[in-house]
Amino acid sequence: MTDAGTADRAIPIWNSIAPWRRNLTLGLLFLVAAVSYIDRQIFTLFQDDIKSELGLDDGQLGILTGFSFALFYALAAFPIARYADRGDRSLIIALCVAFWSAATVACGAAASFTQMLLARIGLAAGEAGATPAANSLLVEIFPPNRRVLVISAMLAASAVGLSGGLALAGWLSTFYGWRTVFVIVGAPGILLGLLVWLFAAEPRKGKGAQSVATVSKLRPLEVVRIMASSTSLRWTGLLMLSVPLSGFAMILWGASFFRRVHGMSVAEVGFWMGGMMAVGLVLGNLCAGWIGDRYGTENPRFNGWLAAIGLFTAFPFAMAFCFVESPYVALGCFVFVKFLMTLYLGPSIALCFAQVPVAMRAIMSATINMFIGIAGTGIGGTLAGYLSAALEPRHGDQSLRYALAITSTALLVGGVAALMAGRTAKILPESLK
Q1: Cα distance between residue 277 and residue 251, in whole Å
Q2: Residue 54, CA atoms < 13 Å, CB-side half-sphere
Q3: Is pLDDT at 215 greater than 60 in this prediction?
Q4: Residue 113 CB-half CA count within 13 A
Q5: CATH code for the structural domain at 18-202+211-432
């Protein structure tokens, strides 16, 4: 027996969205991803100034940039993603953008470690909900042969935010103090949230909303069971723990590294490191998206091999970044590290999505973000800070060289995990439609 609802579900959702509306939605969510990383990244450029004014040490800075952010990012992500798998994702994203923008402004008013900690927690909680909802929405409104590229475009947006945050804050630092910069950067996000709510495509609004919501009601324990029962997803979990540990340690402490080890000014670090990060991360994400769509659409396991090649090749450049004497050679190595590391993320996310039901994609995205957040901003950022503090009595300002070298060894673990994730992947037929 065939009813209207069955007929509607037989038609791919992406086929009912006009191409211009899909692209407008991608553009708006690209801006959301960029702004989220701008708002979190400006802290790293000013963390030495914040350290001095608030009387902090590197361990406390590690907590602010790392552990506290990652913990509350993970705690907030799952309930929001749970709703995103069956609710209005454009509204979720809009509210999240407004909330984290207000928290960014609050960072500029913090007068103590505790106040800054609370502001960073608010920033993390707001940002936690946007990415799972955005990924779920975009994968639904774009056809399968464009999904790796779309995911990689969103990751490139994050790269633009990471680098743009440094460049923008570095430029603003020539005119204003760090407190004013937080206010200037944070406030416009409220308007962006409104634009997303008004103009982003959401198939669950209006006609078809009931049928989409109906297939999205998986129990949380069922979600956990599906993920834990997959050998490939377990290897992907290790991949998502190891690589961000190394990558975010370099990103979160890179500005301090160039200021302390190579004697660069705030403005110089913002310009050079921000520019190099943009080149490496944006090109890496877009190349990964193009290669993944070209060779991984019919064979998603290819994405694991692509990730592994990039990670193994990145390791020697990471060691050179830490120990070369020239700041400009270090910047060159930084570009190659970020380019090669970035080849893993978009294809790995697409590989995960190919192994879970459609109704789990927001939860899957939240899980990936939890692993990245805990390992990257949580463990990586905090570990690098404490390693630097422990090595400082012996190595002084050079201690960051050794701290970042130690955390970079996680790239090799990630390479092995990527190989095994691709090798053991079991692809669901519905993911190829």
Answers
A1: 9
A2: 25
A3: no
A4: 14
A5: 1.20.1250.20
**What is the average pLDDT score of the chain?**
82
What confidence score (pLDDT) does residue 105 get? 92
Residue 218 has pLDDT above 90, yes or no: no
Q: State the Cα–Cα distance between residues 43 and 61, nearest whole angstrom.
A: 10
Residue 41's CB: how many other CB atoms inside 10 A? 26
Mean pLDDT of 149-156: 78
Does the pLDDT value for residue 379 go beyond 90? no
Largest CA distance in the chain: 76
User: Strand, helix or coil at 10?
Assistant: helix
Structure tokens at 79: 């309930």
Q: Which one-letter DSSP state was computed for residue 263?
A: -
Angle between helices 231-260 and 327-342 (to 10 degrees): 160
* Cβ neighbours of residue 393 closer than 8 Å, sequence gap 6 or more: none
- Compute the C-alpha angle 401/310/382, nearest 5°: 35
Boundaries of every domain in the chain: 18-202+211-432
Q: Is the pTM of this model over 0.70?
A: no
**Rounded distance between C-alpha atoms, residue 200 and residue 3, angstroms:** 29
Q: 178's torsion region: left (phi>0), alpha (psi -120 to 50) or beta? A: alpha
The CA distance from 316 to 408, in Å, is 9
What is the Cα–Cα distance from 276 to 342, expressed in whole angstroms? 14
Is 206 a residue whose pLDDT tops 80? no
User: 175 — phi, psi (to 5°)?
Assistant: -115, -30
C-alpha closest to that of 286 among 334, 345, 337, 243: 345
Burial zone of 49 (CB within 10 Å; 0-12 exposed, 13-18 middle, 19+ buried): middle
Count of Cβ atoms closer than 10 Å to residue 320 Cβ: 16
